[in-house]
Each structure stands twice: as C-alpha cells, then as structure tokens.
Amino acid sequence: MAVQTGMMNMTDQRITMAHGSGGESTSELIAEVFGRYFHNEVLDRLGDAAVVQGAGRIALTTDSFVVTPVFFPGGDIGRLAVCGTVNDLLMSGATPQYLTCACIIEEGLPVEELIRVVSSMAETAKEAGVSIVTGDTKVVERRSEDRSELLINTAGVGMIPDDREAPLPEAARCQPGDVVIVSGVLGDHHAAILSARMGIQNAIVSDAAPLTEMVSGLMAAGMDIHAMRDVTRGGLGTILREFAESARCGIEIREEALPVRQEVRDFCGLLGLDPLYMGNEGKAVFVVAPEDAERALSIIRGSRYGAEAVCIGTVQEAAQPEVVLHTRIGGRRRVGPLIGEGLPRIC
Amino acid sequence: MAVQTGMMNMTDQRITMAHGSGGESTSELIAEVFGRYFHNEVLDRLGDAAVVQGAGRIALTTDSFVVTPVFFPGGDIGRLAVCGTVNDLLMSGATPQYLTCACIIEEGLPVEELIRVVSSMAETAKEAGVSIVTGDTKVVERRSEDRSELLINTAGVGMIPDDREAPLPEAARCQPGDVVIVSGVLGDHHAAILSARMGIQNAIVSDAAPLTEMVSGLMAAGMDIHAMRDVTRGGLGTILREFAESARCGIEIREEALPVRQEVRDFCGLLGLDPLYMGNEGKAVFVVAPEDAERALSIIRGSRYGAEAVCIGTVQEAAQPEVVLHTRIGGRRRVGPLIGEGLPRIC
Does A281 touch chain B (CB under 8 A)? Predict the structure, then answer.
C-alpha cells in the first residue's frame, strides 16, 4: 500500500541527491521504479548480488551508455542499453541470459523520464529474452542548467551451450574465400542521433534492436560462423579492418552492394558522411564459408530485423591486411582507419 | 614497438573526444592504458564479451563509482571500484572471479591520472584474486572548468561452489539468539572522503579493502553465516534495520561495543555525525548462531583487515522489527532510518 501511494506521487517528482543516499529515498526509488518494471524472481530478492544458474562456460560483457539525447527517433537510452549488451553477448557465440543495470542520474531528472527509460529497458529485455537481475543507482549533482543527464551501464552474462559443436566465432577465423554478409541497412542509428541533435526533422529512425532471433537462428541451424560483430561505434569499415588485421587477410567489398536507406544516403551526402564509418545498433556483419553463405543469408533474412540482409563482399588472400572498396564507377579505394572523433555520445 | 612509443607520449596527454570514437585513438587508449595494466589471457583477446569458465550457480553484481575526489587518503576510485564489487560478491556467498571495467571519462582528464587509477585497480584485483576480463570506455564532454571527472562501473561474477553445504547467507535468516559481529572500526572511509572534501588535514584514511581473505576463511571453515553485508553507503544502522525488517526480528546493539577509531570519533563529534550511518568500504557485519560466534570472531580476527573485529549485539524476538542501541549512559535508543542525503558521492 505504501508503494502504491508512493508511486502516484513519485511520477511527478524529480530526482534529488537523497535518492542516492542509500537510505529511505533510495529504497523507495528502487522499489517504485526499477523493482516495478524489472520485476523478476531473482531481482526481487534485492541483494547486492544476484545468484543465478550458471553454465560450464559463460560470456561476460559491459557497456556504458552516454547517448544524447536520451530519447531519439526510434528508441531511447534504455532500449540501447539492453540491445548493445545483448548483441555483444550474441556476437561472442553466447545465449544472452542476465543483465545488470547501473544508473548514474543527475539530480533534477524528472522521475517520469526515468520511468520511460526503465520501462523501455524492461520491454526490450523481454523481447531479447534476458532478465535484469541486479542493479545500482547513484545520484550526482546536476551541472548543466537546462537538463539533467542519465548514464546507464549494463553488464551481461550469456551461456555458451555445452553441446555446441561449431567453434566460437572469432575475427582471426576469417579465411580467403569466405563471404561477408551484413544484416541490413547501414548508418540509421548514427543519422537518427545526429538529426535529433541538429534539430532536423526527417524520416530517419534508429535501428536499435536485439539480434537474438537472428543469431540464435543461425546457431540453432548449426551454422559455423567464422566471425561476427555488431556494427556499432566506428561502423562497418572499422570492423572489417579489425577482421582483416586479426586474420591477416584482405577483405573486398562492393560499394553498390552496401545497403543504405535512401533518406540516410541523402542525409550523408548533405553532411559529407560515409556510411562505412557510421554506427548502427541493430545490425551485424557475418563471415561464413562460401558453401554456407546462401543458407546463412536465408536464415538471417527470415529473422526479425534481417529482411534486408545482403552479401557485400569476400575475404581474399593478401600480402598485408587491407580492406578494399570497389566503387560504383569501377575504382578501388582502400578503406582506411577512422581517425579522430567520429560522432561523440552516439551510444 | 608502436605501443612503447605511444606509451611514452601517452602519459603526458589528456583525454580527448577522439579517445571515445571507437576508432584508432580508442584502440590506442585501450591497448596502452587498460591492456597494459589489466593484462590477462581473457582480456587480451579484446572481444566485446569475455568467455570464461562458469559454474552451476553464479553470482552477479554491478556498482557504479562516482566518488569525489577521485584520489583520497587511503585509496582512489579504482581501489574502491574493485573492493566494492568484490565485497558484494563475497557477501552473496560467492567466490569472486571476474570483473568488468567500464569507464566514463570526461575529456581533458590527464592520462597520467587514468593510469594511476587503472594500475590501482590492477593491484587491488590481484590482491582480491579476481581477473578484469572485459571493459568499455566512453568519453564525454567536460562540463566543469577546473576538473575532468572519471566515473567507473565494475560488474562482477562469482562462483557459488558446487559442494557448498551451508545455505547461502540471507538477511531473512537472522534469528533470535544470533550474535552480530562487525569486522572492524566504523566510519573511516566516510570521514576520510569528507575530510578531503573539506580540505581538513588529519590522520584519517579510507578503509577500502577487499574482504576476500576474511570471507573465504569463514567459508572454508564451513561456517554457516546467517547473514552478512559489507558496511557501505547508509552505514551499519541502515543494514541492521534491513536485517531486522527481512527477518521480522529485533536487533540490540551496545554503543560501548561499537568500534570507532579515536580520530574518527573526534571528527564525528565536531561535525555532529553518527558513525552508525557512515559508510565504510572494507568492513562487514556478520550474523551467526551463538555457538559459532567465538569461532567466527577468531577467524575474522586472524584474517587481513579483521584484527579489530568485535561482537556488538544480538538478535532478539520482537513484536515488530526494530534496532535498539543501548547507550553508554544506560539509555535505549531506537535506531531510525537514514533520512535525506547522507554524504553524496562517497563511493
């Protein structure tokens, strides 16, 4: 009953330093915001650590999210914080299972905004098939007059199935002849964040999504994925360069095959951006043996968020690691490293 | 060789937004700061997730650290970030094994400061017997003219030994007759942070420490600890109240038994602070059956950081949950909840 009464008041409140004290206000915030939306058997015990079922091998990852603005077309920091960590686990060959949620909140944040973010996390976690089992909340002083920031860290634990036969994906396993597949259009998240920040109204929305169905489909089919990576900060170009470096090989991709939505292409043209270096939050690149390529592509296309998957190139023998782009007009361009800032606070 | 050359330059640099881009500068920062100090077989693979050995049951925890100042008498944010998470795992009955390390760095931070923090984390992790296996780095704009902040999240995974016979400690397992032990003096971390912030020179130092040896000693002896908790934000008073609430019992403690160092006592007297609500970072409270109390106390006293452990009270039947302090002058005082702010950014 106390909780119910509290809840009604809470939605209209702002975060205060007392919410970070570790005392009554902290308990109230945890119960009425996090407890309410993340509610599950493990989390409800409210211990400082969660005890959960393990496995012979587990995967562990962490990501902090500092995206600004916190709400953007197609998503929010909460959806991002779940997708980013779930996708990192998937990329290691693990089945994502448990997430932690640690919030650093600037005082003055409207509790209503926190609730929108937390409920978005809960919804995305449900879609991704993971439980948020433990968390932490810190409150810090607000240092900007016009807004209170919210930073979220999610760490994740996934299980490596004991009966898994195929070796785990690893950049170094790329080999000449392999086919490179991307799961969909490039640059959407990056362009959506940048548009929001510039106050530009357009049809671009973030692609933030958990790739659970796509990757578990490939795994369930026993597919031997040589390498896979979610396309985030740094973009596809940066990932392919890392693959080439790790496997000491060349990667050749065709510009005309790179999937980019027309609005994003126009936006990039306007600002002189290259989709090859732009971050997504719901796309992955897969490297598979040529004989597996068609089957992999069909599984990816049949999965949620994978309808626009395409083969974009191949792995080649090379005297030294390099990524080469075959341009539309028949040229060859070396894909260099991303130098400098990229887009700050994109995730 | 590139790393060596880079390293020499790096120590004198400041963090720039480019270090957060996900491109070359990010790789350099990760290799030359985090990779250099955290170096281990799993981390060195530099995947977005770490694959490690699991167990039938695992414990999972997360904590963000926002302490200010970042360096304080007796420790720094790095030592704190390892101790806090290691201790949370220990308190759940797990053997701490793997940590993640996610840094949010404001541009302008001298790399030399980051290196001091990272090497402190590495040293503390070694003492605590854990490996830092994966991490994340984000850079955000500096928003204060005079300093760049550093925020750290550590998530941790511990293993619950398969052959463990005693049930896991849990607040609800406190029962009438049980003895309450604290592992050492109260309030040191809190008083050290506050002194540093007020610019007061005194002999008080933080007690930040990993309690691995103490707790694993109790576990190895097969001790059935009914409840245990590390004394942090909110202080001993807040924890005992939570124990009493969870177990629906009373807890009586004796003021004269509460261990407080003389300098801390003086400092508290001066500022009107109550050590019962002050945070430590290397102390724990244990609740055990009366027949186990002497043996538990002797194990704790024989362990690192446990020399000053004492029994401070007992669990009692009570009509409703309450914590009662028997004062030095023979009075009874109800230990109420911590209301309001406490000390912001103490951890």
Answer: no
CA distance B67 to B8: 29
B191-233 pLDDT, tens per residue?
999 999 999 999 999 999 999 999 999 999 999 999 999 999 8
Instruction: Measure B124 CA to nearest chain A CA, in Å.
Output: 20
Closest CB to A62 among B57, B136, B339: B136
| B16 contacts in chain A (CB < 8 Å) | 341
Instruction: Write out the H or E segment, with its range, that includes residue B238.
Output: helix B235-247
Q: Six-digit token pair at A192?
A: 């959506």
All CATH 3.90.650.10 domain ranges in chain B, comma separated: 171-334
- What is the CATH topology of the domain spanning B171-334? Phosphoribosyl-aminoimidazole Synthetase; Chain A, domain 2 (3.90.650)
Q: For B12-74, where are the alpha helices, taking DSSP H only?
A: 24-29, 36-38
pLDDT for the residue B174: 97
CA distances from A199 to A73, A193, A326 (A): 11, 10, 35
| A225 residue type, one letter | I
Stretch 18-77 of chain B: residues touching chain A, C-beta under 8 Å: 18, 20-26, 47-66
- Confirm if B107 and B142 have CB atoms less than 8 A apart: yes
Compute and round to an integer the Cα radius of gyration of chain A. 21
Per-residue pLDDT tens digits for A112-125: 999 999 999 999 99
Architecture per CATH, B2-160 = 2-Layer Sandwich (3.30)
> For residue B146, how far is the Cα from the chain centroid?
28
* Region of A238 on the Ramachandran plot (φ > 0 left; ψ -120 to 50 alpha; else beta): alpha
The H-or-E segment that residue A287 falls in is strand A284-288
- Distance in angstroms (rounded) separating the CA atoms of residues B289 and B293: 6
- The amino acid occupying position B175 is Q
Query: What is the rounded distance in angstroms from the CA atom of residue B137 to the CA atom of residue A4?
Result: 39
Tally Cβ neighbours within 10 Å of residue B45. 17
* Complex ipTM value: 0.89
The whole-number average pLDDT for the span B162-178 is 90
Contact at 8 Å (CB) between A158 and A91? no
| The residue type at A256 | E
Prediction pTM value: 0.91
CA distance, residue B55 to nearest chain A CA (Å): 5
The model's confidence at residue A33, banded by pLDDT at 50, 70 and 90, is confident
Chain B within 8 Å of A162 (Cβ-Cβ)? no
Identify the three-state secondary structure at position B253.
strand
Q: Are B282 and B189 in contact (CB under 8 A)?
A: yes
CATH 3.30.1330.10 domain extents, chain B: 2-160
**How many angstroms separate the CA atoms of A80 and B185, rounded?**
43
Task: Give whichever of A328-337, B3-12, B157-166 has the largest mean pLDDT.
Answer: A328-337
Q: Does the pLDDT of residue B42 top 80, yes or no?
A: no
How close, in Å, is residue A236 to chain B by CA atoms?
Answer: 11
For residue B113, is it left (φ>0), alpha (ψ between -120 and 50) or beta? alpha
Strand stretches in chain B, DSSP E: 50-53, 57-65, 71-72, 75-76, 95-106, 131-140, 150-160, 179-182, 225-230, 250-254, 284-288, 310-316, 322-326, 332-334
Give the Cβ contact number of residue A174 at 10 Å. Answer: 24
